[in-house]
Amino acid sequence: MMVEQAGSVVCEQLTRKLDILQKISTNTKFQMQFIQQRKMKGLLRLLRERAQYLQEWETLMKETDSTVILATADEEMKRLILLIEGKLQEIIEDNDAAIEAAQAEKNHIAADLRRIDAEIKLRNSYDYQWEKFSGNWLNQKG
Questions:
Q1: Residues near 30 by Cβ (< 8 Å), separated by ≥ 6?
Q2: Quick one: residue 64, left, alpha or beta (phi over 0 = left, psi -120 to 50 = alpha)?
Q3: 21-80 pLDDT, tens per residue?
Q4: What is the largest CA-CA distance in the chain?
Q5: pTM above 0.85, yes or no
Q6: What is the DSSP letter of 127?
Q7: Which sequence spans correspond to the domains of the chain?
Q8: DSSP per residue over 63-119, as a string?
Q9: Are 120 and 55 in contact (CB under 8 A)?
Q10: How many angstroms separate the CA atoms of 66 and 69, rounded?
């Protein structure tokens, strides 16, 4: 009875881990969309949510003893463990893609700013000599 109860607690913890990882994965995919759309406020909100999920993950990892899980693992637990490992790998790949997208967008923004700065400098370097003449002296006879 005690082993079954421990097994159900472990299954519940593994399910909670998988739920948290699913939330992190979804969050990461939304981050990539916000990066491409240059929505920084939304991205900051997603990053705060992600920090909360990671805090939950850390708390859950402290509560869970992985050696006990592996020793008492039945088929359901092994399936959950494999799902968790797969989800972790997916999150790592998504993180790498999000970082690459963020770096590319940063470079794109920097290039846009340099282009705009060059245009402003060019515009300011013109000598608008015709604007300096005012009045109607050009039309006078004389």
A1: 46
A2: beta
A3: 999 999 998 888 888 888 888 888 988 999 999 899 888 888 776 555 555 667 877 888
A4: 117
A5: no
A6: -
A7: 2-125
A8: H--HHHHHHT--HHHHHHHHHHHHHHHHHHHHHHHHHHHHHHHHHHHHHHHHHHHHH
A9: no
A10: 5
